[in-house]
């Protein structure tokens, strides 16, 4: 049996024998790790060292538009020569190292996260080596550090050779493409730069260590298999190029650190690797202290650190940053998921409470709300910002309505009336635009006061899978959660204008009452004892049993009459609830898919047709506690499956989706913002997130601040 444990001594999750793959097929998923830099850039890979996704690499830099995120540093081949001259490789390196690799043994005996940062321990004949990786906050920089924990004889050293391999390309580009036709290496005084063309910043490399040097030994590998790409129907054979390998002596008293960066040299040299590592660890301790998670609650602290991965300062939108700073503020947004998502309006608004309010990062929550408020156009906030773009895309019917929800949760928890007062005129414009009709067929039907949406070729709800011209779940018409959100938004704005003024004689109370009356007449599917998913759709009323009906109960102002809560929740519990979220469609429907696998068309056919979504556990818990307000213990157990999941997929984070049937194999993005946010929020709501007292939190913050001051001095 695999040994797993979590402890709080620095928020640590440890996995022994981590080279084991998870269960499943297509191929079996491997455990992965993720480190982010607060700009949208990241480093990520498999725990075992196998390269299997186009998105993996030691440095995926987030660069100003139009470059966006680029894979700059793909792989690091690690070879050690032991005191007895035995040569060994760290990690599972056969595909990259080539057929002449002498040592094929798996030396990795332990993988752990300390404060969310990955640590590997390798047991070799006569030596134990530890490897750590981190990214300094706000920099497109990665540093990989090796320590010799023990060696025989005790005074001996280990010679380590590190071969960096690269293939400059967009992070979402196929593995058989490259942005560079050729690479050029320049070096001076221990500084090495790899260039791939004038439009791409150079990759700067530096090694700290005893007798560190570079051996020029240019090599190219053109047959590197990316197994996950193959299983997903994409090009799966890529190439990499290496200028040579760095070598250094690893001693018990002297670490070896490789630094790779796209930053200027003065920034790279500003901090030593030890100082940068200490600063990042203290930043993470401070996050845990600010959140106030107790020492007895490692799961909560882990999710606080996981939440930090998604909150970013967008690197590419310089004009927006200048505007915000001129007003004495900062730009913040939320990456929806790693590896391939950018910042999405819907995901940001759903995630805001768990990522920033539950973690007590209130100022950043305000920055996020103001950032998106600035981008309102024709009554809509952006659905998404494409990577490398300065402007958003607006094809969404629900993201703007989730904005109201996020503002209310922010107001409830902070009491910040000034921010809400600033936003009320923009929110009023949103309601007016919806009443009059806006883009993509979004507008109120004057016949019944319900909100309809839909335009051919667009997917406007959160069920937004599309392949070429095929919109898998178009849901054009009057969707159940859209109207639950619309009623909630009307009620919220009505309260705000009464408190802060504005809106004139818009008649918000009357609009809300009419929408509620029509909703309860139109959406009740008496035969099934639950709610239609869409009414007045292209094919009439859609009785597919989906989780969207839960929002009619879960929101602050539930639109569904109370006497129907229990039958709806019982249907959802029996047909949709799993240990890791809710199915997107109930079994038995003709379109139901139990597994999410295969090429893009196969996957998107299953994406919202049965596949389990982790974030949906949040509204289910909200609705459950409205129906059973004294059952916080039972609601807490609805989250048990996520604790186990933190040792799967991306260790320490929560996946986007899962297969609809046991063993609920994790799929999609390995780290998803709203999955982490909603589980963390529900831990807090059910009382399972153990909080320190206000006094204890102040003491923890003072202790951390003191440590930071001592380090700085």
Determine the CATH topology of the largest domain.
Glycosyltransferase
Find the structural class using helix and strand composition.
alpha+beta
Q: What number is the mean pLDDT?
A: 90
What about the largest sheet?
Answer: 10 strands, antiparallel
Description:
This protein is of the alpha+beta class and 713 residues long. The chain has two domains: 4-270, Beta-galactosidase, Chain A, domain 5, CATH 2.70.98; 293-691, Glycosyltransferase, CATH 1.50.10. It has 20 helices and 38 strands. The strands form ten sheets. The protein has a ten-stranded antiparallel sheet. Strands 3-4-5-6-14 form a five-stranded antiparallel sheet, with no helix packed on it. A hairpin with a 2-residue loop joins β31 and β32 (540-542). α5 packs antiparallel against α19 and α8 (362-374) runs antiparallel to α9. The radius of gyration is 26 Å and the shape is elongated. The protein starts with a strand and ends with a helix. Residues 1-8 and 700-713 have low confidence and may be disordered.
Question: Could you give a short description of this structure?
Answer:
The protein is of the alpha+beta class and about 725 residues long. The chain folds into two domains: about 5-270, Beta-galactosidase, Chain A, domain 5 (Distorted Sandwich), CATH 2.70.98; about 295-690, Glycosyltransferase (Alpha/alpha barrel).
Features:
single chain; 713 residues; alpha+beta; Beta-galactosidase, Chain A, domain 5; Glycosyltransferase; 2 domains; ten-stranded antiparallel beta sheet; five-stranded antiparallel beta sheet; 38 strands; elongated; disordered N terminus; disordered C terminus
């Amino acid at each position: 049996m695999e040994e797993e444990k979590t402890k709080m001594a620095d928020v640590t999750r440890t996995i022994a024998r981590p080279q084991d793959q998870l269960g499943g097929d297509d191929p079996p998923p491997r455990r992965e790790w993720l480190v982010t830099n607060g700009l949208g850039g990241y480093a990520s890979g498999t725990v075992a060292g196998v390269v299997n996704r186009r998105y993996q690499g030691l440095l995926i830099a987030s660069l100003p538009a139009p470059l966006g995120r680029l894979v700059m540093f793909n792989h690091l081949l690690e070879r050690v020569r032991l005191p007895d001259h035995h040569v060994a490789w760290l990690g599972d390196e056969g595909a990259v190292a080539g057929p002449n690799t002498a040592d094929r043994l798996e030396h990795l005996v332990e993988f752990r996260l300390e404060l969310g940062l990955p640590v590997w321990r390798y047991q070799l004949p006569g030596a134990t080596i530890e490897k750590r990786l981190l990214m300094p906050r706000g920099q497109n920089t990665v540093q990989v550090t090796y320590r010799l924990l023990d060696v025989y004889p005790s005074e001996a050293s280990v010679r380590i050779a590190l071969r960096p391999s690269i293939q400059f390309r967009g992070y979402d580009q196929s593995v058989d493409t490259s942005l560079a036709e050729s690479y050029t290496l320049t070096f001076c005084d221990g500084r090495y730069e790899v260039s791939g063309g004038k439009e791409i910043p150079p990759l700067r490399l530096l090694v700290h260590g005893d007798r560190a040097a570079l051996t020029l030994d240019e090599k190219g590998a053109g047959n590197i298999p990316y197994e996950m790409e193959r299983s997903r129907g994409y090009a799966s054979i890529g190439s990499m190029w290496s200028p040579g390998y760095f070598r250094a002596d690893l001693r018990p008293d002297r670490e070896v650190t490789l630094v790779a960066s796209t930053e200027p040299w003065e920034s790279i040299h500003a901090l030593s690797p030890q100082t940068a590592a200490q600063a990042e660890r203290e930043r993470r301790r401070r996050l845990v202290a600010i959140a106030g998670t107790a020492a007895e609650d490692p799961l909560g602290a882990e999710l606080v650190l996981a939440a930090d991965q998604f909150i970013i300062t967008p690197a590419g939108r310089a004009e927006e940053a200048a505007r915000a700073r001129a007003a004495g503020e900062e730009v913040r947004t939320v990456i929806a998921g790693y590896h391939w998502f950018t910042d999405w309006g819907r995901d940001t608004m759903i995630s805001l409470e768990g990522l920033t309010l539950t973690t007590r990062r209130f100022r950043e929550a305000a920055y996020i709300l103001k950032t998106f408020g600035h981008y309102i156009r024709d009554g809509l906030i952006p659905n998404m910002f494409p990577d490398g773009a300065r402007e958003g895309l607006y094809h969404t019917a629900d993201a703007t309505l989730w904005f109201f929800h996020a503002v209310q949760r922010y107001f409830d928890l902070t009491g910040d009336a000034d921010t809400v007062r600033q936003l009320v005129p923009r929110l009023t414009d949103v309601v007016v635009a919806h009443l009059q009709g806006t883009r993509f067929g979004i507008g109120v039907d004057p016949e019944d006061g319900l909100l309809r949406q839909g335009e051919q070729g667009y997917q406007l709800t959160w069920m937004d899978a599309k392949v070429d011209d095929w919109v898998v779940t178009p849901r054009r018409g009057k969707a159940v959660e859209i109207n639950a959100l619309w009623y909630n938004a009307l009620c919220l704005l009505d309260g705000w204008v009464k408190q802060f003024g504005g809106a004139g004689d818009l008649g918000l109370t009357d609009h809300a009452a009419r929408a509620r009356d029509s909703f309860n007449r139109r959406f009740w599917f008496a035969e099934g004892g639950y709610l239609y998913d869409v009414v007045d759709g292209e094919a009439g009323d859609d009785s597919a049993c989906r989780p969207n009906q839960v929002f009619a109960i879960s929101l602050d102002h539930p639109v569904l009459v109370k006497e129907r809560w229990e039958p709806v929740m019982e249907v959802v519990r029996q047909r949709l609830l799993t240990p890791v979220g809710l199915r997107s469609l109930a079994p038995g429907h003709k379109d139901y898919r139990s597994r999410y696998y295969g090429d893009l068309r196969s996957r998107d056919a299953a994406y919202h047709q049965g596949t389990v979504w982790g974030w949906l556990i949040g509204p289910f818990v909200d609705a459950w506690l409205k129906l059973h307000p004294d059952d916080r213990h039972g609601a807490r157990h609805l989250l048990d499956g996520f604790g186990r999941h933190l040792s799967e997929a991306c260790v320490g984070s929560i996946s986007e989706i899962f297969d609809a049937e046991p063993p609920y194999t994790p799929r999609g993005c390995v780290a998803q913002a709203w999955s982490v946010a909603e589980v963390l929020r529900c831990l807090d709501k059910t009382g399972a997130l153990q909080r320190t007292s206000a006094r204890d939190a102040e003491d923890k913050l003072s202790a951390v601040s003191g440590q930071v001051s001592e380090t700085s001095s």
